[in-house]
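Our example copied in:
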Amino acid sequence: MTKKQKQDNPEFISLEESNSLKKGTRVTFIPGLQAMYAEALKNICFVKKIPLIRVLHPLMGTDKETGQDRQAKLYELTSQTSLPTMFHDEERPRNVWIEQLSLAERIGAEDSPSIIPENFDDKAKMFGLCAIVLGEDGLVWNMRILFDSPLAQKYGYSESASSLAPNKMAEIISLIDNRLESQEGKGSKYLVGNSLSAADIYWATMSMAVLPVPLSIMPKTKQNQGMLMFFESNSKIPKIKEVLSQRLIDHQHYILNTYCETPAILGGDTLNE
């Protein structure tokens, strides 16, 4: 699928419909919301030229009409409730980024780029960079505990952990920036080696949480406007603001505009500005 073939109003099917399918790659999304891990997986699949069937991810909480847990069916099917969940053909579901990446690399189109390096030294560097962005106590993990909320509680929020989060985020951002500077000195635009890898895609997508992007990259919707404001506020936290560089912005925009689904297609209710 090319960028020109994208639809402004993508179709979403239910979990029940997804479960009845024997073929195809299905990923759960919340319409109109660029949930970061879901958006990153969408970009991974876009690069790998994997046609996606979008599945409605159930919201947290209890259905007022039925009194049932909205996520009960997802838990029944997958034994977890994380967003996104990835299904492929009749294989087991994947809900962890590293498993989703490995699956995408395996099932991607033959003419799509390999985004996991063959060289083990580069592979170790790539997975290490991904881990400090995506993994426990990484960039996104610490972003989620900046302020107390039900989601923050799920990720171990405490006043002491929250107070350390900006410093940890800044340390990770600086490490990425230093890595890009080192690669730049070798004539490379990428985080690892001389070609695109999953580290570039994951970082460029996840960095939107601290480096807000133009609406030409991430449109504003009724569903995501609060999240965009939160990301804007993150970029103004003193410890984070002082380590944000033009090099980081340039890399982010280059990867998103060159390789990823841009502008992002979210569904939901678009707000025109």
Strands lie at 12-13, 25-29, 52-56, 86-88.
